[in-house]
């Protein structure tokens, strides 16, 4: 039985992916990265160039930094850059069934984020995130006086010699 349950255990640092979403194109690239992972035959997940994973998650998922109850889990944690409004969504191929495993239940991932206090008011609905949270972020203006302005640029292929 232990070997069967082992398949439902995930190391949280390997399955949690953060990404800043600034506009519609960032959501499209996030969807493409998710498609790549879903279509992949590999069981290991790797962040795309724009995603990043945490080094530590023990504050949320305990000292062992594990999440139990899901096979092939991926947690997407999207943030707006100004107000840090969040979308938390997760994907998995299978969730443990308490009927099959003597009442053993999966961890409540969202409850763990709420208990820790991650991004109060986050949404689990991607449409709401785009329609409301990103729109609110566009209207956000930080307090103070602008000292410098930095623009985000993506460099796909460079002809600059190193």
Explain what you see:
By secondary structure, the chain is of the alpha+beta class. The chain has a single domain, classed as Histone acetyl transferase 1 (HAT1), N-terminal domain (Histone Acetyltransferase, domain 1), CATH 3.90.360. It contains six helices and seven strands. It has helices spanning 2-6, 12-15, 24-39, 58-61, 109-116, 126-139, and strands spanning 9-11, 16-20, 66-68, 70-71, 74-79, 86-91, 94-95. The strands form three sheets. It has a three-stranded mixed sheet. The longest helix has 16 residues, at 24-39. The chain is elongated and about 60 Å long. The N and C termini lie far apart (55 Å). The model is unreliable at 35-44 (pLDDT under 50).
SSE order and pairing:
Blueprint: H1 2-6, E1 9-11, H2 12-15, E2 16-20, H3 24-39, H4 58-61, E3 66-68, E4 70-71, E5 74-79, E6 86-91, E7 94-95, H5 109-116, H6 126-139
Parallel strand pairs: 2-5
Antiparallel strand pairs: 1-3, 4-7, 5-6
The ordered string of helix (H) and strand (E) elements is HEHEHHEEEEEHH
CATH third-tier fold name:
Histone Acetyltransferase, domain 1
Portion of residues in helices? Answer: 25-40%
Q: How does the major sheet shape up?
A: 3 strands, mixed
| Order of strands in the sheet with most strands | 2-5-6
The radius of gyration computed from the alpha-carbon positions, rounded to a whole number of angstroms, is 18 Å
């Amino acid at each position: 039985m232990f070997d069967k349950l082992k398949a439902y255990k995930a190391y949280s640092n390997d399955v949690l992916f953060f990404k800043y979403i600034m506009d519609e194109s960032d959501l499209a690239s996030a969807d493409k990265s998710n498609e790549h992972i879903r279509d992949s035959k590999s069981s290991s997940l790797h962040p795309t160039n724009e995603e990043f994973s945490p080094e530590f998650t023990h504050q949320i998922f305990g000292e062992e930094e594990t999440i139990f109850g899901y096979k092939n889990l991926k947690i997407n944690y999207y943030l707006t850059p100004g107000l840090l409004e969040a979308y938390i969504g997760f994907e998995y191929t299978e969730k443990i069934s308490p009927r099959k495993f003597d009442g053993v239940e999966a961890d409540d991932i969202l409850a763990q984020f709420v208990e820790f206090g991650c991004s109060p008011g986050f949404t689990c609905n991607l449409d709401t995130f785009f329609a409301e949270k990103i729109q609110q972020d566009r209207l956000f203006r930080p307090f103070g006086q602008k000292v410098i302005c930095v623009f985000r640029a993506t460099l796909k292929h460079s002809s600059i010699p190193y």
